[in-house]
Design brief:
single chain, 249 residues, Rossmann fold, OB fold (Dihydrolipoamide Acetyltransferase, E2P), 2 domains, five-stranded parallel sheet, alpha/beta, 15 strands
């Protein structure tokens, strides 16, 4: 069973999240709550939660302050936050999880299922958080690094290092410069959403490409990539690709 802790300065938000968890997440067997970083820290050490639902913006000390205070994490963090497009994209680039306020039961259940399904490198949480802090301090999405985590390691890559992404069932193969390949448990659809606004092109249901690595596009509807690979363009995507490449040119 799963132990969860909820940290939020707003009692109404805590009450709602706790009620939704009891109603819709039977795998969570025990819950503790705190309304400040000061209150949360000793509880985390004594309660030893599996998941911490953490509000980002709180008076006096933020959720980030709490995380930087803890030397070693033994829990998964799910941020709870009001809508902030820049912060959310930084979170997603860093392979961290979040829930938008007000939290609804569908998204909560999905977040808990993602936690249960995760099988990543044990110290990954803190490493991913460091990447998030670095991303959000950049002030520009163009400088974000994408965090890639699996069962053995965490990698941080600049977007120009990514040549293409290819769907393989519920996994994604990410092809990097230097003939490196990373296999991610995220779907291609998730990466398509994460990389929106960064000029990556979905040219096929199984392919997402970096236009900066397109060498040529032939009459047979095949992209020739900088690593020597060939990517088929779906028929219905050909006009979209032509327009995108013309715009990029």
């Amino acid at each position: 069973m799963i132990k969860a802790m909820m940290v939020d300065d707003e009692q109404s938000s805590l009450d709602l999240l706790q009620w939704l968890t009891v109603q819709y997440c039977p795998d969570i067997s025990s819950i503790k709550t705190a309304r400040s970083v000061q209150e949360a820290l000793p509880l985390i050490h004594s309660f030893k939660p599996d998941i911490v639902f953490l509000d980002i913006q709180m008076p006096h000390q933020s959720g980030f302050d709490l995380l930087t205070t803890i030397d070693q994490w033994n829990f998964e963090v799910i941020f709870t936050t009001a809508y902030n497009e820049f912060a959310i994209q930084a979170i997603r680039f860093s392979a961290l999880d979040y829930l938008l306020k007000p939290v609804d039961e569908t998204e909560l259940k999905k977040a808990v299922e993602r936690y249960k399904a995760k099988r990543i490198y044990a110290p990954a949480g803190q490493l991913l958080f460091r990447n998030f802090i670095q991303n959000i301090s950049q002030g520009s999405r163009e400088k974000f690094k994408l965090a890639l985590a699996d069962a053995t390691e965490v990698k941080y890559v600049q977007l120009d290092e990514i040549i293409r992404l290819q769907a393989e069932s519920n996994y994604t193969h990410i092809f990097l410069k230097g003939n490196k390949v990373f296999v991610s448990a995220k779907t291609l659809k998730e990466y398509d959403e994460i990389l929106q606004g960064h000029k990556f092109l979905r040219v096929h249901k199984s392919h997402l490409v970096n236009p900066g690595h397109i060498e040529s596009y032939d009459k047979q509807g095949i992209l020739h990539m900088s690593d020597g690979t060939k990517v088929e363009v779906a028929r219905r995507k050909k006009d979209f690709l032509q327009q995108s490449l013309s715009g990029n040119g």
